[in-house]
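Revision sheet: structure tokens.
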Amino acid sequence: MTNTVFIAILFAVIAGLFIELFFQLIKYRDSLNKEGPYPITAYKTITDASNYMSVSQYLSGGERRWINYFLFRLLPPTLILLLLSGVIRRYLEMPNIFPYLIIAAIISLIPRDILSLFKSRHISEKLLHAVNMLLILLLIPAIWIVNQTIDLSPIAPTPQGLIDNLWSSLIVAILVLLYLQATNMSARYQDRTAEDNALSNYVVMAYTRIKNKYDSAIRLSCKEYNCSLQILYAILIYEDMNRPANLRKFENLIVKLFRLNLTVGIAQVQSDKPLTDEESIHRAAKLLEGSAYIDGGIGNSLFDFKQLEDILKNYNSGKHYVESVSQIISKLRIYAVDIFQRGV
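Predicted:
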């Protein structure tokens, strides 16, 4: 192995580690807020230890949709891999950068997706990690084509430029910290307010969309199984947040092709055959059969958390899941009064 190839591999490894470092920094920022709400943590996929992240973890800091999530996952690798291409072209003058892009991509994927792919217990979780990996791998030929058509060497920094930028960043960081300390501007209240507003906005938007499309199916299913309208709506809002329509279509396709038992449909119920959203709502109501007794207590803000936990045990027994559904119910109580009125 020549010195040039060794240096190129070293640069690729460093680039891959920088991608992971970016997400670790976001994760560290998240850990600083354990006493309050979590900032948006797109680095956390929905494959948390409990299978679901809490509503506040997903929504705090603003409404986040799946396009935002994938952009968040793709932009750092894109920028760093472009930078790697420029560095190799400028300092090593190597015509073929493809192997080094692959090395950098794999290094970045190992801690975030490759290991999680094998650790995940649910097939739906594995699918999301697989999609993340596929997107990064598809990114490599795109960057290779850009490198072949455009001279990326100007974007590679010079050693002196790096030193100047480091000093500039340090000075700016010190000034910002001094300003915040002098003005005593704590972001804690602002974070909580933003988180609460984000959750309210999302619940209102999702409730309106789901009601317009599925209200008839929801009410008929609840009537048939004596199911809580409020709880079912809250579950649908939360599940729709975790599995948007495009991903649900993909899950149905996997079930159809391989006859796997996955959670499918807007209600994310277990099935070994494809389900429409309406069919999944019907099955969800059956899982919640007899839960309508709790509706009166929910409407008066008196329902017991343990009751909700017992009702959801056949659906999902995770504590984060129950907490998230409870949070959504509290918002529905304010913004969706119609489903709390008996006989409506």
